[in-house]
C-alpha cells in the first residue's frame, strides 16, 4: 500500500524533479497539490490525474486534516516558509518531508521538531544525497578503514544564480546566500562521510554587494570544519560562476573523488588505493536511481512503520547551527568553537 503525498509549492524543484519522481517511486503516490496559484494547480493536477477535491490553496491547507488520501506533506517552498507549513501540516495530523535547508534559523528548526513531536508525526529533511548510491558507497568506504585514516575533505558546490529579484536573493526568505542553498551539501557531506560533528569552524565571505543579487546575501563563501578525529573539511559555495559540484576525501592510503557529486544525476566516482607502494585508480560504477524517488520512498517506509527517518529534523537543525557558526566566524574573522552535538542517530 503506497502512502499518499501532498506536494506544497509548485516551483522549479516540484515541477521538474519531485512530481515526475512519483512515477519512479515504489512506496508513495501523489495524492494532493497545494499552491497559491489556482490556474497552475489545475493545469498540474490534470497532468498528474489529481482531482479538484485534492487541490488546496495556502488558506485551505489546514483542511488536509480531513483528507484521508494524504499521509505525508512534502514542503517545497522558500526556506523561511518551512516552519509555518511544517507546523500546520503536523497540526493537521500529517507526517512532514521538508526541503533543505530546514529553515532560516536554529530556533525555527527547533520549533518544527517540537511541532512534529507534539503531533506524534515523523519529520524528515530532504537530504537527497544521503539516499544516493555513490554517497552511500563513499560513506561506507571512508568509514571502513580500507583507505586508512581520513585526513582531508575538499567539497565545492556552486552555480550562477541569476536573475536578480528571486527569493534566493532575499535574506528574509532564504536565510542567507549560497551557503544554506548549495554550500549545505558540502557541510552535510563532511558530516556524513566522517560520521562526526565538527568541533570548530572558520570562514571567509567574498561578495560584490554592488551586484543587485548580492545586496542582502553572500555570493562566495569558503569555510573550514575541524573534526574531533583531526579531519579538516575545506568547503566552498558560490552563486557567481559556472556550476561545479565536487567532493574529494583524502585518506592516508588513498582517496575518493566524486565529480559531479551533488547533481541530480550523472554522478561519477573514482577511488585511488595505494597497494605495495603503487597507486591504483579505479572508476566505481554504480546505478544512479532517481534521488527524489529514493528519498520519498524512504520517508513513506519509515512513516508507515512509525519510525524515525534517516535524516530527521535534528539533522537539519545541526546543519543550521553550524551555518550560524560559519557566518559568525566570517563576521568576526576568527575560528568559532562548536558545542558537542546532542544525541545523534546511531544509524548515520
Ligand atoms: P522556486 O522559486 O522555483 O519555487 C518556490 C515556490 O514557492 C513557487 O511555486 C512560489 O510560487 C512559491 N511561493 C510561495 N510563497 C512565495 C513567496 N513569498 N516568495 C516566493 N515564492 C513563493 O524555488 P525552488 O527552487 O523550487 O525551491 C523551493 C525549496 O526547495 C527551497 O527550500 C529550496 O532550498 C529547495 N530545493 C531543494 C533542491 C534539492 O536538490 N533538494 C533543489 C532546489 C530547491
UniProtKB/TrEMBL annotation:
Keywords: Oxidoreductase, Signal. GO terms for molecular function: glucose-fructose oxidoreductase activity; nucleotide binding. Coiled coil: none annotated. Residues 135-256 form the GFO/IDH/MocA-like oxidoreductase domain. Its EC number is 1.1.99.28. Residues 334-348 are annotated as: Disordered. It comes from the Bacteria. It is an enzyme of class 1 (oxidoreductase). Residues 4-127 form the Gfo/Idh/MocA-like oxidoreductase N-terminal domain. Belongs to the Gfo/Idh/MocA family. This is Glucose--fructose oxidoreductase. It comes from Aquisphaera giovannonii. The gene is gfo_3. The chain holds residues 73 to 420 of 425 of the full protein.
Amino acid at each position: 500500500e503506497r502512502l499518499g503525498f501532498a506536494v506544497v509549492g509548485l516551483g522549479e524543484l516540484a515541477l521538474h524533479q519531485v512530481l515526475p519522481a512519483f512515477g519512479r517511486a515504489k512506496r508513495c503516490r501523489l495524492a494532493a497539490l497545494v499552491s497559491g496559484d489556482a490556474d497552475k494547480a489545475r493545469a498540474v493536477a490534470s497532468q498528474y490525474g489529481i482531482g479538484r477535491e485534492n487541490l488546496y490553496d495556502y488558506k485551505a491547507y489546514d483542511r488536509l486534516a480531513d483528507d484521508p488520501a494524504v499521509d505525508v506533506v512534502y514542503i517545497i517552498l522558500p526556506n523561511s516558509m518551512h516552519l509555518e507549513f511544517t507546523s500546520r501540516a503536523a497540526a493537521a495530523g500529517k507526517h512532514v518531508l521538508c526541503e533543505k535547508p530546514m529553515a532560516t534559523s536554529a530556533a525555527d528548526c527547533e520549533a518544527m521538531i517540537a511541532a512534529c513531536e507534539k503531533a506524534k508525526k515523523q519529520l524528515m529533511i530532504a537530504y537527497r544525497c544521503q539516499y544516493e548510491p555513490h554517497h552511500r558507497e563513499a560513506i561506507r568506504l571512508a568509514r571502513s578503514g580500507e583507505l586508512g585514516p581520513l585526513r582531508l575533505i575538499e567539497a565545492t558546490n556552486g552555480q550562477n544564480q541569476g536573475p536578480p529579484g528571486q527569493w534566493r536573493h532575499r535574506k528574509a526568505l532564504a536565510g542567507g546566500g549560497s551557503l544554506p542553498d548549495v554550500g549545505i551539501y558540502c557541510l552535510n557531506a563532511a558530516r556524513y562521510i566522517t560520521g562526526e560533528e565538527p568541533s570548530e569552524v572558520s570562514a571567509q565571505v567574498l561578495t560584490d554587494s554592488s551586484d543587485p543579487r548580492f545586496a542582502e546575501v553572500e555570493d562566495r563563501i569558503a569555510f573550514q570544519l575541524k573534526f574531533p578525529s583531526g579531519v579538516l573539511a575545506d568547503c566552498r559555495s558560490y552563486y557567481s560562476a559556472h556550476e561545479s559540484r565536487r567532493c574529494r576525501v583524502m585518506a592516508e592510503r588513498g582517496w575518493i573523488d566524486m565529480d559531479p557529486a551533488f547533481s541530480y544525476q550523472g554522478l561519477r566516482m573514482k577511488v585511488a588505493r595505494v597497494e605495495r607502494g603503487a597507486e591504483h585508480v579505479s572508476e566505481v560504477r554504480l546505478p544512479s536511481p532517481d534521488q527524489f524517488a529514493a528519498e520519498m520512498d524512504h520517508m513513506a517506509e519509515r512513516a508507515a512503520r512509525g519510525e524515525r527517518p534517516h535524516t530527521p529534523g535534528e539533522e537539519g537543525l545541526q546543519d543550521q547551527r553550524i551555518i550560524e557558526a560559519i557566518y559568525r566566524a566570517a563576521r568576526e574573522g576568527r575560528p568559532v568553537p562548536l558545542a558537542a552535538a546532542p544525541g545523534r542517530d546511531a544509524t548515520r
